[in-house]
Every structure is written in structure tokens, then in C-alpha cells.
Amino acid sequence: MSQGSAAERRRAGLLLHPTSLPGGYENGDFGPEAYRFVEFMAACGFTVWQTLPLAPPHDDLSPYSAQSVHAGNPRLIALEPLLEAGWLQPDGGPQAGEDGWSYRQRRLIEARHGFQNAGNRGEYNDFLAQRQRWLDDYALFQAIRAAHKQTAWFDWPRELRDRHSNALAAIRRQFGDTIAQCQFEQFLFYRQWAALKQYANQHGILIFGDIPLFVGYDSADVWARRDCFLLDSQGNPEVVAGVPPDYFSATGQLWGNPHYAWEAMRADGFQWWKERIRTQLTQFDLLRIDHFRGLESYWEIPATAKTAVSGQWRKAPGDELFQALRAEFGHLPLVAEDLGIITPAVDALREKHGLPGMKVLHFAFGGDAENLYLPHNHTVNSVIYTGTHDNNTTLGWLEEVDERTRNHIFDYLGSSPKQMPESLVRAAFASVAQLAVVPMQDVLALGGADRMNQPGVAKGNWRWRFRWDQVKPDLAGHYRHLLTLYGRV
After folding, report:
1. Phi then psi for 301, rounded to 5 degrees?
2. Which residues are catalytic?
3. Which of 67, 2, 78, 86 is nearest to 34 (CA)?
4. For residues 316 and 364, is the Cβ–Cβ distance under 8 A?
5. How far apart are CA 413 and CA 486, in angstroms?
6. In CATH, which of 3.40.50.300, 3.30.450.20, 3.20.20.60, 3.20.20.80 is domain 11-74+190-486?
7. Cα–Cα distance, 184 to 107 (Å, whole number)
8. Of all helices (H) and strands (E), which one includes residue 437?
9. Catalyzes what (predicted)?
10. 10 Å Cβ neighbour count for 167?
11. How do the domains of the chain map onto residue ranges?
12. DSSP readout, 324-385?
């Protein structure tokens, strides 16, 4: 595969969402701690930083059901660069009773006024022109949400829900300041992320992003392009996405995302997907397609169902989609998240388009020697993880598994509980898989209380953050030794 792909040479990466960085207000951001993290990675010898999607979440903070596939999360905008630019003046931080996000929002409004007074709008105008195809709809979507107490678009008055031109024109006139603020925040997001990505690339680190297969129902994308989704005339989904019963849930997972109107997408040459991928390629060097198997066949659940059990598999035009994308972009630096119920047809689609698959060591033990996740069964064109953002930390996982599985783990690895999680990390690094990725929690040897996400649990996820005092002074040197030992530096 070509330069910048997951498999052109042996590499190792760290999995950490920017919200999990220290610093910032309420969550990590693109400020000084992000640059310090890049320097830490480089000192360790890691050459891939894997994030979760950077899109704007809803109140549950999940980046996998966001308000836009194109926009960036304004919670990640750092205030320090705005002070340096002179667009903000120093203050004493959040006021009494003001939470971190409210404070950040207030300061971003102040920054726009400071930016306007500075007078140099060339870069900003260029950004608006380049992103117009999605930014206009997204800013309008956010203005209407703000005017209707953040209610979902499908509960708006009919003329706004159905995008009547007179109603939208009235919103633009009445809430022009809100629209301009949203556009300015997207300018800041992309400006700061581009600078951070450039800094990482200069340190030899590729940025590895994540594309959720499905789109959040309450999103600018679905509201603006209802023709691309299986919705009725009132905008209600006819069927929704999820997965059947699996490792994570006995009743499956009912995600609730609307399904794509694949026939309509095929008719215009998958233009919606081309625009989506074009945006992601400006943000990342590598891209993981979450729930890749849904591009071969997807689990279709009646919109009225209470669980995912009553769904059925439907065929998806994944092969045609990838052919169209390759014709548009040439080489695609993609990784397929091929976990769950994987059929020969899913494997054939991934292999036809040369996409690396995923191996997760948490899924390797408790069975027999044929388990494909065991290191001796790995393939070169794959990405190996100890666990992902949806798994427990390795130490938390060890507390959950049964005695037979625990015995298998330590017998296979030739290790003991005191050597975990490092013995599992070493197994990942020793794998023939070209890319090995380890969550920051496993590097820091943290337990289940530091888990990022628990699928099927609605509250309390996506909030984990690490602290620099958890990083031992010799940690970078130790990891550089390990990555050199296993040929990943």
C-alpha cells in the first residue's frame, strides 16, 4: 500500500480521543496539552495517533451519532491560540456557577468580536467559500435548534422541518448573528486542527480518524438531504440501524440511525459519500470505517421495535460505492472495522478493495487455537488492538472474564496477572499485523473505572480524561524500547 496507508511499514499507534487530553474546560481540546501529547508519542516511538470522530455530539457526548458528518466539535476549540492572536483578552476563567462548556461558548463569542475588529478576513472568507456546500446548511440547522430550545429537527414546525424557502429566509434574517457565530467556530476548529495535524506530521505521526457508517437522525445531514435516507413524508424513519445480538448485548444494539436510501445514492454516483470522504481526507491521514460490514449487508430494524432482535439483513452496494470512491480519489487510506458477525461476503468485499481489517486481543481467548484474533492467526494487512474504545480497559476486562478464559490468557501469553496489561500490549506489538494500536488506558495500566464507552449504556460515557501525573517519568523510554524490540519504530 502507498505512503500514508496503514500497512506500508510496521507502525504502532496510540488510541486517545482529544476530549480525553488534560487541560481545557470540561474536556481536552486542541490547546497546549495536545501538542505535549504529540511530543510524548514521538518520544515513545508511536507514529499513529488514532482518534474517535471529531464531529459535534449531542448532549450524550457520543461522537458516533453527531450533528454533522462534516462539521467539527466546537468543544475542542482551544482558547489559548485565540489569546495569542489577540482576539481574546485574558480573564479570570469561569464565573461562579458557570460550567466549562458555557464558559468556552461565551469566550468564543467574544473571540468573534475580537476577530472582526482585527480586520483580516481573507483566510476566513476562503474557508467559507471552500466549505459552503455543507456549512450553510449546518449553520442554519444550529440556528433553528437554538431558536427552538435545541429540539430535534423532526419536531420543528412543518415549514422548517420541510425546509420551505420562505421560512428558511426568515431564519437567516432573524438569526444571522447565530449563523455567523457557528460559521466562525467551524473556521476556528478547522484552523486549529490543521495546525495540530501539521505538528503531528512534522513529528512523523499520522492522524488516524474514524468514520461512523451511519449518520445521527437528528443531524444537519439528514435534515438537509432527506432524499438520501429511508424516511416517510414527515421525516420519520421507516427502519433504523443496529446490530443483532453479539458479544456486547444479548438483545443486540438498537442504534436508531436512519438507513440510507441506497437506490437514490446509486442514481447520482454516490455524490453524498464523495463529499463526506473529501471532508474526512482533509482531517486525517488514515480512516477507519466503523461497522464496515454494513456496506455489504446491514441489519434493518423496524422503527417501532424496542430491541434489535427483530431485524433482518439487507444487501448494501458496498462494492459499487468503493469503485466510485476509488475513481474519484484514487488510493483510499482506509481500514475496515470488521468486528461482529462477519460473513465470507464481508471478507470478500474488504479483500477485493485491499482494506486492512481489525484484530482485537480481548476477543481472542476462551476458545481454541483456531480463533482468528489469536496472534498466531493474524495477517500482515490488518490492525491489531488490545481493545478498542468500546472495550473495557485490559485490566478491567481481566476482572470480568471467567476462570477458563483467564487461564487461557496467561497460559497463551506465558505471563501472570502482575505482568498485565503489558504482556497483552507486547503480544500486540509482536503481531505480524503492520499496525498495532493500544488505548492510552492500557499504556497507563488503568482499570475499568477509566473505560471510555460501554455499548448499550446510555449515560456516563465519553468523559474519560488522563492526567500527566499518571505518566511515569520512564514511560516514554520504556515504550521506545518495546517498539524498537518489535520493529515498530
Report:
1. -115, 135
2. 290, 337, 390
3. 78
4. no
5. 16
6. 3.20.20.80
7. 13
8. strand 435-439
9. Transfers a segment of a (1->4)-alpha-D-glucan to a new position in an acceptor, which may be glucose or a (1->4)-alpha-D-glucan
10. 16
11. 11-74+190-486
12. HHHHHHSS--EEE---SS--HHHHHHHHHTT--EEEEGGGSSSS-TT-TTSGGG--SSEEEE
**Cα 387 to chain center, whole Å?**
15
pLDDT for 249: 80
Mean pLDDT of the chain: 95
Three-class secondary structure of residue 210 per DSSP: strand
Model confidence pLDDT, tens digit, residues 284-305: 999 999 999 999 999 999 999 9
Contact predicate 449/460, CB 8 Å = no
Q: Which three cell numbers stand for residue 279?
A: 471532508
Q: Give per-residue pLDDT as tens, 306-353.
A: 999 999 999 999 999 999 999 999 999 999 999 988 999 999 999 999
3-state SS track over 374-393: CHHHCCCCEEEECCCCCCCC
| Average pLDDT score over residue span 26-31 | 97
DSSP helix/strand/coil, 95: coil
Looking at the chain, the whole-number percentage of residues with pLDDT higher than 70 is 98
pLDDT of 7: 55
| SS3 label, residue 485 | helix
For 202-219, what is each residue's pLDDT tens digit?
Answer: 999 999 999 999 999 999
How far is CA 398 from each of CA 206, 395, 402, rounded to the nearest angstrom?
31, 5, 9
227: CB partners within 8 A, 6+ apart? 261, 264
CA 397 – CA 375 distance, rounded (Å): 18
pLDDT, residue 6, reads 53
What is each CA distance from 378 to 357, 407, 433, in whole angstroms? 10, 21, 6
Q: How far apart are CA 478 and CA 443, in angstroms?
A: 11
